[in-house]
Design brief:
Structural class: mainly beta
Shape: globular
Oligomer: single chain
Strand order of the largest sheet: 4-5-11-6-10-9
Strand content: 35-45%
Number of domains: 2
Helix content: 10-25%
Low-confidence stretches: 1-17, 33-49
Number of strands: 30
Radius of gyration: 21 Å
Mean pLDDT: 82
Number of helices: 9
Distance between the termini: 25 Å
CATH architecture of the largest domain: Beta Barrel
Length: about 400
């Protein structure tokens, strides 16, 4: 998805209950910065990130990772990624093609995307990395198990390891989860080179996890460390805001400080993503009643819809697609709302959460996803929806709930 906003979080513990919170700090995204500078056309695929910090063992540096309900693995850059594979891959026996596949000692050298990375620079350079030699609780898996996670240009390749994960920065009271299997990335996509993101913390279900590993939050639940529920509150901030408090991520319970009573819980239609049924959609004079599979995704900065529907919505609300910047441009004073029927309730996304106001023009937080058949997700409800309504993720009962924020 396209990038609009980045959030940085430091975790703290709420005394008196097994609930942990991560306040979020807004930073300017790569996309916003590049549009302002006029260099956006050279780099049009970067996603928004909502970040928190975690530590692998007490002796290692914190990693700023994306909180992502659209995936289920934890991975961070490994020391090998930062040092790079240049010396190994430049050997004649690692030349791209069949020779590499047969003779190269590290098959990562055979990947076309990685060869491009080596020419344009190592995306891992400058990032905090994990060094297993400095971790007293690290456990190497008996058999090396490799992983590859790919979402367009967002990809990571490496191997799995086992260590204690601490949610939050050093000095704070943190949820400590031993025995967590995580990915040690030996190579990552170029998209990560232009931002401080140091990994992804997936919050989906185990059935979604690459390699079938137990996601970190589920590991905490299985160990009885935290209740099987987490929630997200996002504060409304302008697209150009920087360094401001942006909301809070709560795991182990409800956020009663920032969120009101739960309007309703909806059963998940499939417990992989946080996927549920979207019955109806209204915007302007457009009314659609076909029904779709939708997911709540904290790492997506727009409302993602099938391409045919995106065009209908844009026409209905007076937005035009700008092929240069790859956004839907809309009147900054538009009063457009998106009305989504989920279960027996209608959830309204207001203009303040739908329209990104820039310095010169405004864009609609809408993106085309192409088409999706079967039972996979067709709509992605990203931060415009999550900012409008607190999202409550009930892992134990496989339900998702929505609540109005007490603060806007």
């Amino acid at each position: 998805m396209h990038s609009v906003l980045g959030l940085l979080a430091l975790a703290h513990h709420v005394l008196g209950a097994a609930i942990y919170q991560a306040p979020l700090k807004k930073i300017e995204s790569v996309r916003t910065r590049m549009i302002r500078s006029g260099s956006w056309p050279d780099y049009v695929k970067e996603r928004k990130a909502m970040r928190t910090e975690l530590v692998l063992n007490r002796n290692t540096y914190p990693h700023p990772v994306i909180l992502d309900t659209g995936s289920a693995n934890l991975w961070v850059p490994d020391k090998k990624c930062v040092r790079g594979l240049k010396e190994v891959c430049e050997q004649p026996k690692c030349a791209y093609g069949m020779i590499c596949t047969v003779f190269c000692p590290n098959k990562l050298c055979c990947d076309k995307e990685l060869r491009i990375n080596r020419k344009s620079g190592n995306p891992c350079q400058g990032k905090d990395y994990f060094d297993s030699a400095k971790s007293s609780s690290y456990a190497k898996l008996v058999n090396r198990t490799e992983f590859e996670i790919r979402f367009g240009e967002r990809f990571a390749k490496g191997f799995f390891g086992n260590d204690t994960v601490r949610f939050g920065a050093a000095g704070s009271n943190r949820l400590i989860v031993p025995g967590t299997v995580f990915g040690q990335a030996e190579s990552i996509g170029r998209i990560f080179a232009r931002n401080p993101i140091g990994g992804i913390l997936g919050l989906g279900f185990r059935s979604l996890a690459v390699g079938g590993v137990n996601p970190p939050f589920q590991q905490a639940v299985d160990l009885g460390l935290v209740e099987p529920i987490f929630s997200v509150y996002l504060k409304r901030l302008g697209v150009l805001a920087r360094g401001e408090y942006g909301g809070v991520f709560t795991y182990g319970g409800l956020d009663k400080e920032n969120c009101g009573d739960v309007i309703a819980y909806e059963n998940l239609s499939k417990a992989m993503f946080w996927q549920f049924r979207l019955k109806e959609f209204n915007a302007g004079k457009l009314k659609l009643t076909d029904g779709w599979e939708a997911i709540s995704d904290t790492s997506t900065s727009s409302i993602g819809v099938p391409s045919a529907i995106a065009n209908q919505i844009a026409t209905s609300v007076g937005a035009e697609y700008d092929f240069f910047y790859e956004v839907y441009v809309i009147n900054c004073n538009s009063t457009v709302t998106f009305n989504l029927t989920i279960g027996s309730n209608v959830y309204v996304i207001e203009p303040t959460n739908l329209i990104a106001k820039g310095e010169i023009w405004c864009s609609l937080r809408l993106v085309s996803l192409g088409s999706s058949g079967g039972f996979g997700p067709q709509w992605v409800l990203g931060t415009p929806f999550i900012r409008q309504y607190c999202n409550i993720y009930d892992v134990g009962n496989k339900k998702i709930g929505f609540a109005r924020p007490l603060k806007k």
